[in-house]
Amino acid sequence: MTGLTDVIYAVRFSPDSQTLAIARGSRDDYRVELWDTTTGNLRHTIKGFDGAIWSISFAPDGRTLVTASGGFHRNRIVEKPSVHDGRAFTELKWWDAQNGELRQRVELPGEDLVSVAALYSPNGKMLAAFEQRAEPRLTMIDSRSPLGDPDNLMRNPIRRSILYAADLKLLDAATGDVTLKLKGEFSGGEMPVSMRGYSRTDFAAFVNQRRDPLVLSPDGQIVAAWNSAEIRLWSSTTGEELRKLKNFKGRLAAVIFSPDSRTLAGAITKLSFKKNRPDFKSEVRTWDVATGAARQVVPVSTQSASSLAFALNGQQLLIGGLEREEMRSFATLELADLQSGSLGKLIGKDEGTVSSIALAPNGGMLAFQTDASTVNLVDARDWKIKHTFDANSDGELHNTATGRFLLTVKNVLALAFSSDGKTLAGEIEQGGIKFWDTRTGEVRKHLDEREGQPTLIEISSDAKTVAEVRDDETLSWRNTVNGDETILAEHDPSISALGVSADGKMLAVAHHDRITVLDVATRKSKATLMAQGKDLKRLAFSADGERLASSSDDGTIDVWSIESKQMLITLNTAGRVTALRFAPGGKSLASASEDGTVKCWDLQTGAPNLQLKKHSATVNAIAFSPDGTMMATGGDDRTVIIWDPVSGKSRRTLKGHDLTVTSLAFSPDGDLLAVGSGNASVVLWDARTGKLNRVLK
Fold it and tell me: Which of 48, 301, 339, 631 gives a 20 to 30 Å CA spacing to 450?
């Protein structure tokens, strides 16, 4: 396995057995795939993750899926995804299991968490959470110990290790709030390591070799957590620890409750050496849950057991493991009876390094993972493989070797948030229109590019409509909700600028020195504005749609009343205008020029209130926060400056954009600022703190 391997982190069936959820990923491509178990077709892919997905769990009604995952809040834009510059976080996310829509996100406290698992209780009211931490530890070697001879102390006087510990909690399944903390800290053990260059991800790699560290009894009364040496049981009602199960020889590799919740089974692997070669043997032990008394020891033929599943009758067990031959290993699947022992075993044809199983709730099939990135869906009646799901089963090549930024231009030409702020729309040069979920970064929809490339484009403030002129001189109006397109004009070479009202109901089209304002619904003209002798290049509507600003190559800006069709005022900028935007309230107008200067104009007097000079190159975009307390400007110097539009003071400068900044948009609540630049990428910033939120691709 390498950093490019598409690794499976978790596998889970829906309660009705109709859907198989597979959490997988590598580097920056983490996702949950929802597969139809009957047809083998991919129903949906949820891509809204910033890091590894440690667990997935369906609600008992099958309508909601909860994931536990991690990631980094980066302090800056980095070109290599492996660079961890920022604050680590862990999170729970609630998804609609039918369409993959995000319903809720809760970030868990604590930057030292290296993995989290969360499971729904059988009644769907609780989530059992296993929050694991890793702490680097340095220990001085005692000179009296066997390791403490003078030569050894000179070479390595300090022992380096990682100490693992976990908190177990019960959460409200609807809100994620903690309702009960299970008493007593659970230890994951101590692991000697070389601590050079360690990272949180390195710690997590060790931890996540063990699947399902948390198990709930089917009746919901008992919570079990386990490590390689012990199993501990708690009451889910009181949080009191009930008992510990240990004193067995070998390494515990899997734990499962019987369907009636009365029996607990554990798979144990023993390692010995014969003629200096490792020899693996496994067994299954069972305990009485009520008393903790040992019941049975079932010898099995599986060499290295790694997963368990009870058959629905409670008398038989499915055991996943590995068979080792020389330098190779193969995934195995064994069926064992609690009374008579092994009933038979299947061995994978191809080499495998991982073996994990999950039985469907209806008992008719099981998911059998045979290597790091492949799951086979096996019919439990004839043990034949029905479907195979690997990294490319959806028909898409997930090229994780590709860096975050590619050397292509593909500027983001226009941006707009949906009215609820949950979606961001971006028109991409040669790339159509993408719609991202701003909470997860997932691409929710993609409208393909129409024939011809856009030369002029404007988008409404609610992201529902887009107007564009393509290189074939066609003017079109596009409904982004349903994808419908209306051709308003064909082969019109005289169009020089476009403007779309905030509500998307009006379109302004400039033909050199004439502006036509159209009612989009009726396609009838609302006004014709004449700017004699001017070559118009930019148009901008006021927020209320009552006024229109136009700029021309001679450096003047005219402000028009649409209702009276009269020019209200002319502003002289003394330079070519490169960006134009009304401030909320409509009392002032911001303009930018080629030398990087930004001016804010008083529309009553026609005088500039502010003249801002901080950009070192042309400014291409201006945006105001909805409450008017912030103004953002961005341009060819690859920076975005957030200003106080009253005092003219710069609040912060946002740097690191891949190419020139071409578009800007504030979210409706003003918390996020979207910055469009090159490589078809959009950077989301926290507008109030200046911290990087995420990069959308």
Answer: 48
* 590 burial via Cβ count (<10 Å: 0-12, 13-18, 19+): buried
Please state which of the ranges 85-89, 363-367, 376-380, 499-503 shows the lowest mean pLDDT. 85-89
pLDDT higher than 80, residue 159: no
User: What Cα–Cα distance (Å) separates residue 437 from each residue in 52, 270, 425?
Assistant: 19, 48, 9
Residue 450 CA, distance from chain mean position: 29
User: What residue has token string 């948390």?
Assistant: 214
- What is the phi-psi region of residue 680: left when phi exceeds 0, alpha when psi lies from -120 to 50, beta otherwise? left
What are 131's strand-pairing partners?
116, 167
Q: Where are the beta strands (DSSP E) in 326-452?
A: 328-337, 341-351, 356-359, 365-371, 374-379, 385-389, 412-417, 423-428, 432-437, 443-447
> How many alpha carbons lie under 13 Å from residue 148 in its C-beta half-sphere?
7
340 burial (CB, 10 Å; 0-12 / 13-18 / 19+) is exposed
d(CA 472, CA 454): 9
Judged on CB neighbours under 10 Å (0-12, 13-18, 19+), 448 is exposed
Q: What is the mean pLDDT of the chain?
A: 85
Backbone Cα Rg of the chain: 31
What secondary structure letter does DSSP report for 411?
A: -
d(C-alpha 490, C-alpha 474), whole Å: 4
Distance from C-alpha of 62 to C-alpha of 624, rounded to nearest angstrom: 43
Q: What is the pLDDT of residues 491-505, one digit of tens each?
A: 888 899 999 999 999
> Distance between CA atoms of 515 and 531, rounded to whole angstroms?
8
CB 50 within 8 A of CB 69: yes
Cα 659 from Cα 581, distance rounded (Å): 22
Nearest residue to 71 via CA among 56, 55, 87: 87
Q: Is the pTM of this model over 0.85?
A: no
Burial of 564 (C-beta count, 10 Å sphere; 0-12/13-18/19+): exposed
- Complete DSSP assignment for 290-313: TT--EEEEEE-S-SEEEEEEE-TT
Nearest residue to 287 via CA among 266, 269, 314: 266
d(CA 236, CA 120): 12
Instruction: Write out the two tokens for 454.
Output: 């856009």
Q: Are 687 and 673 in contact (CB under 8 A)?
A: yes
Inter-residue contact 577 to 537 (CB < 8 Å): yes
| DSSP secondary structure code for residue 493 in this structure | T
What domains can you pick out in the chain, each with its CATH number? 248-372 (2.130.10.10), 412-696 (2.130.10.10)
